[in-house]
TrEMBL record:
Keywords: ATP-binding, Membrane, Nucleotide-binding, Transmembrane, Transmembrane helix, Transport. This is Metal ABC transporter permease. The lineage of its organism: Bacteria, Pseudomonadati, Pseudomonadota, Candidatus Muproteobacteria. GO terms for molecular function: ABC-type transporter activity; ATP binding; ATP hydrolysis activity. InterPro entries: AAA+_ATPase (IPR003593), ABC1_TM_dom (IPR011527), ABC1_TM_sf (IPR036640), ABC_transporter-like_ATP-bd (IPR003439), ABC_transporter-like_CS (IPR017871), P-loop_NTPase (IPR027417), Type_1_exporter (IPR039421).
Length: 606
């Protein structure tokens, strides 16, 4: 089974499903849509009436009395109809503009919000470059579909119906028969060839998204590329995708030439037959010279929109293909959803309880087994263990990025699955191990913890996180841009921004996921003092790497292979002489060796 670049099977949608997805947005502005259609009909009536007036003008001049009286009324009517066609068309576009732009805005917002509602699993699997390109092409497709389907295909069909009716009623029925036969053959040919060409268009879209994904991923990891000297390797990977895109694009353009040539041939045959028939009728004096001009004018009016109709249909099919991928994002399943009518979480004390919690990302590979522990209100509990023991999974489950597969997690006695995710996450603050910042100013990134906070509160949070002095030393101070993912700051500086952001949020529950692992010893001790004061009034879960940072924890949990194998205070665990005591001894040994290594390196350098 073919997979998309999101790691999920590609959703298959019919064209009608895609079009139907837009109807609610049109219904919101049904008054404007109806008015636009009225202007559209008026424009087409004016356009069809122009050849009729032109016929009367030609016939008026074709009589012996033509030089005696100038048909001023007919010339005025001709000018007014030309003006009406243009004026009603512009009014139609002006009235419908808000419908198109609002629809694009609403759909783009809906996709954006849905992406934020999807689980962490989706975002770990997805490739953002491809997703952003799909949204970009999808919104452009909406604009094209709404404008051209309503204002090109529909009016062209109306105009063809008007012309065929006039030709059938006023002239030889063969005029209408040839016109309709040409249209039918043209439409069938266009449908068949366009469906064949859609294979190349979809392949182009897939390769375009893949190329964009690779480019963005490579540029975001610029330093890694440089570290390993893999510029040429990245260029080859990018060009490999572009090569596949090029092949699909060439086939797409070649097949377009086949389509255009065939359409031109069909129209040319139809026009030739109609003009031969009109010429024969003029020769037989069953039609006037004005009638010949009328038929010719109708054919000219039909030729361009009919030829354009093929282009519009092709582009609409392309737009539907583009929109298919974007709307497919909306069909991605929300793995973590609020229960209907779920209330907000009201934290009164902040007591956290894990009861027999089990979890697995994949049923074949369990991560947590029967994990149970309590964090009493205002207490500090630390979790330690080797990498892969399941420590960070605890914080993800607490935030409900995933739902537990067994057991339950309670806050103040309430299952977190029974409350809204928004209120749950509002009650918890986290400083993660890997801090990612927005490509904005330092002030913005700190204030993100509480966007409504006043300037003084942001500065106070920065001071508490011991980053204020560093920020003030920068040329642009708090207006300094941190770069993509915060790459202009060091690891320690990014982590201090993250700590300030969490301090500003000031939630009742705190999670520190190895929060000081990137800090130097001096800064770590200063921040640990602040965190200790903060934790005194908050329920705190600390996922620790350095055991020296959790000596004051009321309880320390030691995890191994997804299970809690030891628990107790620092002193109790050392007295037990188990896994924790072994980890403590290893860290003491590392700390003792570091000064010796530093001295040795200094002597060597000298």
């Amino acid at each position: 089974m073919r997979l998309t670049h999101y790691g999920q099977p590609p959703p298959r949608r019919s064209d009608w499903q895609t079009i139907k997805s837009l109807l609610p947005y049109l219904w919101e502005f049904r008054g404007r849509v109806i008015l636009a259609l009225v202007f559209l009909a008026a424009a087409k009536v004016s356009n069809v009436a122009v050849p009729l007036v032109l016929k009367e003008i030609v016939d008026a001049f074709d009589t012996p009395q033509a030089m005696l009286a100038l048909p001023i009324f007919l010339f005025v009517a001709y000018g007014l109809l030309r003006l009406g066609n243009s004026l009603f068309g512009e009014l139609r576009d002006a009235v419908f503009a808000k419908v198109t732009q609002r629809s694009i805005r609403r759909v783009a917002l809906q996709v954006f919000e849905h992406l934020h509602r999807l689980s962490l699993h989706f975002h770990l699997e997805r490739q953002m470059g491809g997703v952003s390109r799909d949204i970009e092409r999808g919104t452009a497709g909406i604009r094209f579909l709404l404008n051209f389907m309503l204002f090109n295909i529909l009016p062209t069909l109306i105009e063809i119906a008007f012309v065929a009716a006039i030709l059938f009623v006023k002239y030889d029925p063969w005029f209408a028969v040839i016109t309709l036969a040409t249209l039918v053959v043209y439409v069938i040919y266009t449908l068949l060839i366009t469906e064949w060409r859609m294979i190349f268009r979809r392949s182009m879209n897939e390769m375009d998204s893949k190329a964009n994904t690779r480019a963005i991923d490579s540029l975001l990891n610029y330093e890694t590329v440089k570290y390993f000297g893999n510029e040429s390797y990245e260029a080859r990977r990018y060009d490999d995708t572009l090569q596949h895109w090029e092949k699909a694009a060439v086939r797409n353009q070649t097949s377009l030439s086949v389509l255009n040539a065939g359409q031109g041939f069909i129209i040319a045959v139809g026009v030739t037959l109609l003009m031969l028939l009109a010429g024969w009728h003029v020769q037989q004096r069953t039609m006037t010279l004005g009638d010949l001009v009328l038929v010719n004018a109708f054919l000219l009016q039909l030729y361009m929109p009919l030829h354009f109709l093929g282009f519009v249909y092709r582009e609409i099919r392309h737009s539907l293909a583009d929109m298919e991928r974007m709307f497919g994002l909306l069909e991605q399943h929300e793995e973590v959803r609020d229960k209907p009518g779920a209330p907000d979480l009201l934290v009164t004390r902040g007591h956290i309880r894990f009861e027999h919690v089990a979890f697995s990302y994949d049923s074949r590979r369990p991560i947590l087994h029967e994990v149970s522990f309590d964090i009493p209100a205002g207490h500090k509990v630390a979790v330690v263990g080797a990498s892969g023991a399941g420590k960070s999974t605890l914080s993800r489950l607490l935030f409900r990025f995933y739902d537990v597969t067994g057991g339950r997690i309670l806050i103040d006695g309430r299952d977190i699955r029974d409350v809204t995710q928004k209120s749950l996450r509002r009650a918890i603050g986290i400083v993660p191990q890997d801090t990612v910042l927005f490509n904005d100013t330092i002030y913005y990134n700190i204030a993100y913890g509480h966007p409504d906070a006043v300037h003084a509160e942001v500065i106070q949070a920065a001071k508490a996180a011991h980053i204020h002095q560093f920020v003030e030393s920068l040329p642009d101070k708090y207006d300094t841009l941190v770069g993509e993912r915060g790459l202009k700051l060091s690891g320690g500086e990014k982590q201090r921004v993250a700590i300030a952001r969490t301090l500003l949020k000031n939630p009742p529950i705190l999670v520190f996921d190895e929060a000081t692992s990137a800090l130097d010893s001096k800064t770590e001790k200063a921040i640990q003092a602040e965190l200790k004061d903060l934790a005194a009034n908050h329920t705190t879960l600390v996922i620790a790497h350095r055991l020296s940072t959790i000596l004051d924890a009321e309880q320390i949990l030691v995890m191994e292979h997804g299970r809690i194998v030891e628990r107790g205070t620092h002193a109790e665990l050392l007295a037990r002489n188990g896994i924790y005591a072994h980890l403590w001894a290893l860290q003491l040994q590392e700390e003792q060796e570091q000064p010796k290594m530093a001295v040795g390196n200094g002597l060597t350098a000298g």
